[in-house]
């Protein structure tokens, strides 16, 4: 092998290493982004939540409809009101499956959220949702391009999922979405939110 060929091979190998290193950094950044979202939601920090979204982002949680763009996302988040004494709204972000697209500027992620929602002396509920999200590197920073949360179950704390299952959470009566959501089954029925990926071993969808 000539010196020129060796240099070309080394250059190509370095480019592959750099691409893998960048993908690893992007994975960490997206993981931190989504977990940051959970911490802000926990404490009703709606302006902080909205700042995590891209300018043309879309949010669709449960069956409340799609809210498109920064200002509509802010409007949606503010609808939940400020933090109050005795109110709990933990949204624990777990089990990420993240794929960085070939362009290095977009990505997809699937997450599980475990939720503790309620108020002291009042209602207490446990819940779970599956997120199928898209991310975009906008102005050099990873942001949420679309957040799609599928309710899997909501149940009263007393008795849990063994005694009662609450229906799908639907739209707000006083806040119209930009586009309505299609309803889907929730526990105790069986429904699998669509995956953004195929089986990593078999390739099966």
UniProtKB/TrEMBL annotation:
Residues 23-148 form the SnoaL-like domain. SUPFAM superfamilies: NTF2-like. It comes from the Bacteria. This is SnoaL-like domain-containing protein. It holds the Pfam family SnoaL_4.
């Amino acid at each position: 092998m000539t010196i020129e060929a060796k240099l070309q091979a080394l250059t190509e190998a370095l480019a592959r290493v750099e691409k893998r290193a960048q993908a690893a950094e992007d994975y960490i950044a997206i993981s931190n982004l989504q977990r940051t979202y959970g911490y802000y939601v926990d404490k009703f920090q709606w302006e902080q939540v909205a700042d995590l979204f891209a300018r043309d982002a879309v949010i669709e949680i449960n069956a409340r409809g799609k809210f498109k763009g920064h200002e509509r996302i802010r409007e949606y988040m503010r609808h939940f009101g400020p933090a109050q004494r005795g109110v709990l709204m933990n949204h624990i972000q777990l089990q990420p499956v993240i794929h960085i697209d070939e362009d290095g500027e977009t990505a997809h992620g699937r997450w599980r959220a475990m939720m503790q929602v309620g108020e002291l002396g009042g209602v207490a509920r446990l819940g779970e949702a599956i997120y199928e999200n898209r991310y975009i590197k906008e102005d050099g920073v990873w942001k949420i391009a679309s957040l799609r949360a599928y309710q899997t179950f909501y149940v009263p704390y007393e008795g849990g999922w063994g005694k009662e299952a609450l229906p799908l959470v639907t739209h707000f009566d006083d806040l119209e979405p930009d586009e309505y959501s299609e309803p889907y089954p929730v526990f105790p029925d069986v429904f699998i939110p669509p995956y953004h990926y195929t089986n990593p071993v078999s390739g099966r969808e």
